[in-house]
Amino acid sequence: MKRKKHGQAQAPQDVPPRGVLIDSNLLLVLVIGSYEPLYVSRHRRTSQYTSEDYYRIMRIVESFPVRLTTPHILTEVSNHLGQSEGPVKSACFQAFSQVIGLFKEVHVPASQISARPHFAEYGLTDLGILAAAGTAHQVWTADSRLADYLARAAIRVVNYNHLGHHD
Q1: Local structure of 71: helix, strand or coil
Q2: Which domain holds residue 137?
Q3: Rounded CA separation 167/25 (Å)
Q4: Number of domains comprising the chain
Q5: For the whole model, what pTM was predicted?
């Protein structure tokens, strides 16, 4: 493994990532799109995305043999889905249950995450992503602040916002 000047581990760029970790916002698009792709742009929490984003995220997930998530990401997605109402809420949670099965849940104790530098600045979910992904996996996020932080920490990261709106 290569080293940065200040002793931080750096992911070797010539070795492909072993797996992918999808941040909460993109996982929410995946879940809602799994319920109904056209509903992605209608849901309050995903209205800035389209059905094309759902299909793109699904292709990303399917292209990796290892797919990671954390309990904190799943909790955020669950909380956002809980804001839905009626039959849509039930259908979205059914889709969520199926999507969860695509991922391996990596548990890093909150006590370890909270002991990391910048805990107050980034919080449990974001620092949990850093801990769970490590340098062997790639993180996909639409959170530019998180993407910048992960890149500085030598975590492989793709900022979804930099891909352009559609394929």
Answers
A1: helix
A2: 2-162
A3: 19
A4: 1
A5: 0.88
CA atoms lying within 13 Å on the CB side of residue 100: 16
How do residues 95-124 score in pLDDT, each as one tens digit? 999 999 999 999 999 999 999 989 999 999
4 pLDDT above the threshold of 60:
no
Quick one: CA dihedral 54, 88, 128, 118, positive or negative? positive
Residues 25/69, Cβ–Cβ less than 8 Å: no
* CA-based R_g, the chain, Å: 16
Query: Domain containing 56 — which CATH number?
Result: 3.40.50.1010
With respect to residue 167, please indicate whether it lies within any of the assigned structural domains: no
Residue matched to tokens 């993180």? 139
Do strands 9-10 and 2-3 pair parallel, antiparallel, or not at all (unpaired)?
Answer: antiparallel
Q: Measured at the alpha carbon of residue 115, what is the angle toward residues 22 and 20, in degrees to the nearest 5?
A: 15
